[in-house]
Design brief:
Distance between the termini: 99 Å
Order of helices and strands: EEEHHHEHHHEEHHHHHHEHEE
Structural class: mainly alpha
Strand content: 5-15%
Shape: globular
Oligomer: single chain
CATH superfamily of the largest domain: Rhodopsin 7-helix transmembrane proteins
């Protein structure tokens, strides 16, 4: 069963916005461009974290967890959401949408769950840095793999609970749009402050918490460094340790602040949304801003963490060497060896070992023996010629 739906956005003040083809193309081109950048950048961050040899196992596991779910979000869920958005416009669907497209299916719920997990994974990483700098005597136990796995489980538990409450219609609800997509909206029966809490908890609250925690980490590290340098016997190793642990904290602070700024406009608009106010093309540009957010976020870690840049270069170097080796092996399989007959003049004295080290007691030089031997020429990658010579005993 199909029904014709005018793909325009009407507002309570009478304003009508049409989703024309020019607006769709103007939004789609930068969105696809940032999709490619975000997928490649997050994959590079995953490779760099796995190849890094300087990070401790606990923090490395948390950073790797954050990078992997960000890569899954940018490689799977964001392109799927963009595809469902563009197929809803009249330029792509000839002004008709199926009734089933109005339903918010499980794909959007998973989309929102992974988005929430990415934000709360940064909170767990910020807590790890806070313990490493503020409570260093507890950090050897805190960086254990089991503690990191507990934080990862807590991250997904928070995301699952928030999505389940939203799906059940507690304070918020999933609102289908005329473009065939789905958004999160406060329930009409909830007052404004209470209905917006789950929306902010999924989008901006985790990044705000990460910013606050990292600011406390910076203050604690500054006081410790100042106290150490003003003491009678300053410890250079303590300064180096604090500076090393502050690198990831700086990356978390800049990353969380960037994500908070990008998600705040979308959260405010969703919080003010009601059932009588359908979304417009503005929401599609806000989604493009989210794609741009995830394209820049891994670049922040590469810009601040020198170890990740070095690990990525090393991994790319190994990949290039492996590709060259495989290509050379393939060429050697395709092009067989060629053997040519060539005369080589070699004296027997050059092939015999020296009887004594004294230069005056050498063996007399015998006449040159002309040997006809095959010269094996290898195709690619071998500049030397290999000579197979018979035994010298045949000519003595």
């Amino acid at each position: 069963m199909e029904m014709s739906v005018p793909l325009t956005d009407s507002y309570t003040n009478g304003t009508v916005l049409s989703a024309g083809s020019k607006n769709v193309i103007g939004w789609l081109i930068p969105c696809i461009f940032f999709h490619l950048i975000s997928t490649g950048a997050n994959l590079s961050l995953v490779i760099a974290v796995c190849a890094d040899r300087t990070c401790k196992p606990g923090a490395k596991l948390l950073i790797g967890h954050m990078a992997i779910i960000a890569f899954i979000f940018t490689a799977v869920f964001q392109p799927l959401h963009t595809y469902r958005t563009i197929t809803g416009y009249d330029h792509f669907r000839n002004s008709t949408i199926r009734e089933s497209s109005y339903r918010c299916d499980w794909t959007y719920k998973m989309h929102l769950g992974v988005l929430t997990a990415v934000g709360w994974s940064e909170v767990s990483l910020a807590i790890n840095r806070a313990v490493a700098i503020g409570l260093p005597h507890l950090y050897p136990k805190f960086r254990d793999t089991r503690v990191s796995l507990t934080f990862m489980l807590a991250t997904w538990s928070i995301a699952g609970v928030l999505v389940a409450l939203s799906a059940a219609g507690v304070k918020v609800m999933f609102l289908p749009t005329a473009h065939g997509t789905c958004i999160l909206s406060p329930a009409s029966s909830q007052p404004l402050p209470f209905g917006t809490l789950p929306i902010f908890a999924m989008h901006t609250v985790p990044y705000l918490v990460s910013v606050v925690i990292t600011l406390m980490v910076f203050l604690t590290a500054y006081l410790k460094i100042r106290t150490n340098r003003s003491s009678t016997q300053p410890s250079a190793s303590l300064d180096r340790l604090l500076q090393k642990r502050l690198v990831i904290a700086r990356a978390i602070f800049v990353s969380a602040l960037w994500c908070f700024v990008c998600l705040l406009p979308k959260s405010i608009i969703l919080a003010r949304l009601s059932m009588s106010t359908p979304p417009s093309l503005l929401f599609d540009w806000l989604r493009a801003l989210t794609v741009f957010q995830y394209a820049v976020n891994p670049l922040i870690f590469f810009a601040i963490c020198k170890a990740y840049r070095r690990a990525l270069r090393r991994s790319l170097g190994y990949s290039v060497m492996l590709c060259c080796f495989l290509c050379r092996a393939r060429i050697n399989q395709i092009i067989p060896f060629q053997a040519n007959e060539k005369e080589v003049k070699i004296t027997s004295s050059e092939m015999l070992p020296r009887m004594t080290k004294h230069p005056r007691q050498r063996e007399p030089t015998t006449p040159a023996v002309i040997l006809t031997t095959p010269v094996i020429r290898r195709p690619f990658g071998h500049s030397r010629q290999t000579y197979v010579l018979p035994s010298i005993a045949e000519y003595l």
